[in-house]
Amino acid sequence: MNKQPVTVIGLGPMGRAMVGAFLDNGHAVTVWNRTESKADDLVARGAVRADTIQAALAANELVVLSLTDYAAVYDVLGSATTALAGRVLVNLSSDTPDQARTAARWAAEHGATQVTGGVLVPPPGIGKPGSSTFYSGPREAFEAHRETLEVLTATDYRGDDPGLAALYYQLNMDMFWTSMLGWLHALALARANGISAKEMLPYAKLALNLEYFLEFYTDRIDAGEHPGDVDRLAMGMASVEHVAHTTRDSRVDPALPDALLEIFRRGQTAGHGDDSFTSLIDIVTAQR
Ligand code: NDP
């Protein structure tokens, strides 16, 4: 069976990796990018350069968008709305769930179908085992193109709502950035004390392997139960205070532990001192 041809719009590191994976798997690929020269090596590998965005859209039913954000999507597609009818726009550009929903409506107004995606791996992970992408939007459109999309990563379809893939992606980014910044802060503290990132690597791997804690606390959190039987928030607060003091003693910026401490203090003030630190979920849920 002939492989489905695909258009890829946006040739940043991610779009370029995607074009490479499609080409490696025998798909005909049409490409377009604002900065034309980024297509040169891909054209040398067999991609077809579209001279205009209209031509890129006209070339194939399946159009993968890999742009910085949804503002860029409108910048690019806004001048070619007449070419959108009948296209399936697999929008792998990151943005908020609301932006994804608005863009899906905008696409529909122009006769196109948006399938939203949130890619969970960096460009070197594209086309490799163990990678995954959240998708959402009309199931039929997703299923029709699932096999082709699986050339890029495994797929995890979350539902009809076009905002869902963006939501799951942002949930992932929330955990990713806070964890990674925690890691960087610990490395700064280590460096201030003469310990290299390399020396810290085995300890960082252990500390950030939180599976035991996630498994242990998940059911309790869903049940709204935060007994202080294995940990008390007051104990956790003392621990964070020690981190903040060690940070200051090491002349490292204390902004991150101070922000944690502020949240623990609010939990303590709300009377959760003898509950588990997981009671902080109620503190961070309330919008201030
Ligand atoms: P980049 O921001 O590096 O590049 C994306 C593309 O967007 C470029 O081709 C750029 O064109 C284009 N672009 C940006 N603004 C405009 C505009 N106003 N008009 C026209 N074109 C525009 O992103 P990446 O390639 O790294 O990533 C693409 C998407 O994938 C992003 O949404 C990102 O969040 C997501 N993602 C990225 C990951 C990564 O590790 N890189 C991991 C997971 C998801 P030009 O070349 O002309 O500048």
Automatic annotation (TrEMBL):
Q: Does the keyword Oxidoreductase apply?
A: yes
Q: State the name under which the record lists this protein.
A: 6-phosphogluconate dehydrogenase
Looking at the record's lineage, which domain of life comes first? Bacteria
What Pfam families does the database record attribute to this sequence?
NAD_binding_2, RedAm-like_C
Q: Where is the NADPH-dependent reductive aminase-like C-terminal domain?
A: 161-284
Species source reads: Phytohabitans aurantiacus
User: What are the alphabetically sorted keywords of the record?
Assistant: Oxidoreductase
Give the 6-phosphogluconate dehydrogenase NADP-binding domain ranges.
6-154
Under the heading InterPro entries, the entry gives: 6-PGluconate_DH-like_C_sf, 6PGD_dom2, 6PGDH_NADP-bd, HIBADH-related, HIBADH-related_NP60_sf, NAD(P)-bd_dom_sf, RedAm-like_C
Which family, according to the similarity comment? Belongs to the HIBADH-related family.
